[in-house]
Specification:
With about 220 residues, this protein is mostly helical. The chain has nine helices and two strands. A two-stranded antiparallel sheet has the order 1-2. Helix 3 runs antiparallel to helix 4, helix 3 packs antiparallel against helix 5 and helix 5 packs antiparallel against helix 7. The longest helix has 30 residues. The chain is elongated and about 60 Å long. About 10% of the residues have low confidence.
Length: about 220
């Protein structure tokens, strides 16, 4: 990914802007997610009895960590990295940012669960919130945790490295799920295509979830 979208092609002022802007957008996202958490928890005796608010709580909780991580922008990248403005971290801070940034994928999964929640609540033979909570909610939360599993898998495989604008899933080593590298390519080389891997690892999951969410909303 960093080989495809390298900041080295940008001027110093452009690299500086790419480093600074996420600090602002990340902070706004954190504030928004914290506001949702506060709104739910301040009236938790009433709201947390409903599956809707519990799903929203889980989505906002993970979004705080992911937004804060992405809001760090280039800070966690190892200090002295060539072509990166504002890098002042270490290998460990880079790994930490990459891991928590990966949790951003929990949000679209929880959004899909909200779509299914409304589908169960009002389509054909509607279910009560109590029925949804007892029969389906635990599976909804389990499904939404799939990106967390992938994020954890990236730690022992040292996938989280400098991706120029932040630390993310990219590596010069052998990556897991090797069949991803074969998609669209007739031959498998000893050097995997990390940009293709990152596309499937980071973007295929939410795009699949988005398709399912749209489909669910259309059926409501």
């Amino acid at each position: 990914f960093s080989q495809v979208f390298s900041t080295m092609v940008f001027s110093f002022s452009q690299r500086k802007a790419l480093s600074i802007i996420p600090h602002i957008t990340g902070a706004l996202s954190v504030i928004g997610s914290l506001s949702i958490l506060y709104d739910i928890l301040k009236d938790r005796s009433r709201k947390l009895h409903r599956p809707y608010y519990r799903i929203l709580l889980g989505m906002s909780f993970f979004d705080v960590f992911a937004s804060a991580s992405l809001g760090m922008s280039t800070w966690p990248i190892p200090k002295g990295t060539e072509g990166v403005y504002g890098a002042m971290g270490t290998t460990r801070t880079c790994t930490a940012q990459g891991f928590f940034a990966q949790l951003i994928l929990v949000s679209p999964f929880y959004n899909l669960m909200l779509a299914w929640y409304y589908l169960l609540l009002g389509k054909n033979k509607p279910l009560s919130e109590e029925a949804i909570a007892s029969k389906y909610e635990k599976y909804m939360h389990a499904f939404a945790m799939i990106p967390v599993l992938f994020a954890v898998m990236g730690l022992p495989l040292t996938l989280y490295n400098n991706a120029d604008c932040e630390c993310s899933a990219c590596s010069d080593g052998v990556l897991f799920l090797p069949f991803f590298f074969q998609l669209g390519s007739p031959q498998v080389t000893s050097q995997p295509d990390h940009s293709r891997f990152k596309f499937h690892f980071l973007y295929h999951q939410p795009s699949m979830v988005l398709d399912c969410s749209i489909s669910s909303h259309m059926q409501k």
